[in-house]
Amino acid sequence: MAPAAPEALSRQHAAALARARKLLSKRALVAAAAGALPVPGLDWAVDAALLSKLIPQINAEFGLAPHQIAKLPAHQRERVQTAITLVGGALLGKLITKTLVINVMKAVGVRLSAAQAAKFVPLAGQIASATLNYTALRWLGEKHIQDCLRVAREAQLELPAPNTAHTVSG
Question: Does residue 170 form part of some domain?
Answer without folding.
Answer: no
